[in-house]
Design brief:
The structure is a homodimer. Chain A is built from 8 helices and 12 strands. Chain A is an alpha/beta fold and about 290 residues long. Chain A folds into 2 domains: about 100 residues, Alpha-Beta Complex (Quinone Oxidoreductase, Chain A, domain 1); about 150 residues, Rossmann fold, CATH 3.40.50.720. In chain A, the strands form 2 sheets. Chain A has a 6-stranded mixed sheet with strand order 4-3-2-1-12-11, with helices on one face. In chain A, strands 7-6-5-8-9-10 form a 6-stranded parallel sheet, with helices on both faces. In chain A, helix 8 links the parallel strand 11 and strand 12. The first copy, chain A, is globular, with a radius of gyration of 19 Å. Strand 10 of chain A pairs antiparallel with strand 10 of chain B, so a sheet runs across the interface.
């Protein structure tokens, strides 16, 4: 068997509604077994949109990325050096144009994207606070990932009061991934002309009725600039990102926390766990090892 | 009595919560009776933040605008040549960067700001649809103000279906002033990379519980750019706006619909009427006539 390794992550929820029996896509790392495309040869390692399956037939390989740096864990290409990595990098450096000294709030801060966004903002010289959904995750943010502060947004009795405590002068930039009540409280605590980058609202994906937000008017009152974005529009940043982030990894200036489950049979449970926050760091399903 | 004329509009709802008995501010047109400030002399006409009162003592006159063009109705300086005028002008030309050929949707389209925003977008060569809250207002938009189409958002059984009919390829730019269900339906009908400028959400100001929005996630999915703004950050555009818009008025390229009630005693009712949409065009309270 020539197939050596394949890791697959969860599909893009919200974009696609999964219908049982239909093929399901995700971002994975794989080794090319055979190729009719001039850019790829047997033995190449790639990352990109593959399937939740052990072997994939990929008909549009133009969108795959070839892996060149193999002195880092290959699983990183589903995370810090893959799609979530582009999302975090683009969110902080391009969409948010975050600058030294700014006050930055990151939600879902221990997740695949948030842990990177927070570390990048710290490397820029910002004051960075993160929220997460368990004490264990909060400890990770404060003790391992270098956040200035962190709190468990599920346990805080008054989100507005908590944000006012962490940001007495308001938030310059909010990296939004959660939605609902947390987003609503953030709107009350943005500085005038603050910026928000939204790449997801995971709390709102799988609930029958979305939460009513009370504070959308503050978008006007505070003259906020809110940008929705996905990694898709920022793939041109990838070479620059590799140049910056691969040395960060080698020099241990950033770390990346992964939550790996073994075997495709454990994939569905790992996927569902994301919506209740059961994962600890980037959720990965390992199908085979290198 | 040297005081000749004063017109006052409603206060900035949402910004200030009015406490009965306290002074209440609004935007008005007035004649200077006496001045200790070198920039203003008795007899000057001004517009700016004054009070809901017949005579005002203004302690920070630096923020007042002097009126130079008096061949247009002076009431226009509470509207097309005043604060709502700057809002509409900035929203279309600066915040929205609206371009020829784009598909533009304006809510509260017959109001103080919306009627101008729509006409400016038409002058730029856009396809422009407006929504308003009565048949009379819809007729005004279609028959007098040159909108390509208009509909009564209170009577449409399915806002999403209506927007899909008017914008089969989606909306490039939405000028948001209403909020609630209308905003939610618009989010479903924006083009990818569409822009939204928000200067108000009047449907949400005076209700006990804001409406639950289901579609905020589309900010990320569609990579929307949403900017809150007020006229306050765009006063530098005023000279350029006058240069553009005063000739438009003289050449009847734009028209401006005003709803004038007489006497301060009718002010409260006129103010309250805004929240149910009773006004027809820009609401003005006339205290005296020139």
């Amino acid at each position: 068997m020539q197939f050596l390794m394949k890791k697959t992550e969860f599909p893009m929820s919200g974009y696609n509604y999964y219908v049982p029996g239909s093929p399901i896509n995700g971002y994975g790392v794989a080794k090319v077994l055979d190729s009719g495309h001039p850019n790829f040869s047997a033995g190449d390692l790639i990352w990109g949109a593959t399937g939740w399956e052990e072997y994939s037939l990929i008909q549009n390989p133009e969108k795959l990325f070839k892996i060149h740096h193999t002195d880092v864990p290959l699983s990183y290409y589903t995370g810090i050096l893959g799609m979530p990595g582009i999302t975090a990098y683009a969110g902080i450096f391009e969409v948010g144009s975050v600058k030294k000294g700014e006050c930055v709030f990151i939600s879902a801060a221990s997740g695949a994207v948030g842990q990177l966004a927070g570390q990048y903002a710290k490397l820029l010289g910002c004051y960075v606070v993160g929220s997460a959904g368990s004490q264990e995750k909060v400890d990770l943010l404060k003790n391992k990932l270098g956040f200035d502060a962190a709190f468990n947004y599920k346990e805080v009795p008054d989100l507005d009061a908590a944000l006012k405590r962490y940001f007495p002068e308001g938030i310059d930039f909010y990296f939004e991934q959660v939605g609902g009540k947390l987003f609503d409280a953030v709107l009350l605590n943005m500085k005038v002309h603050g910026r928000i980058a939204i790449c997801g609202m995971i709390s709102q994906y799988n609930i029958p009725e979305p939460e009513a937000l009370k504070n959308l008017m503050h978008i006007a009152f505070k003259r906020l600039n809110i940008k929705g974005f996905t990694h898709r529009d920022h793939h041109h940043l990838y070479p620059k990102m590799l140049e910056t982030v691969v040395p960060y990894i080698r020099e241990k200036k950033v770390m990346y926390v992964e939550d790996i489950v073994e075997g495709l049979e454990n994939g569905p449970q790992a996927l569902v766990g994301l919506f209740s926050g059961r994962n600890f760091g980037k959720q990965i399903v390992a199908l085979a090892h290198h």
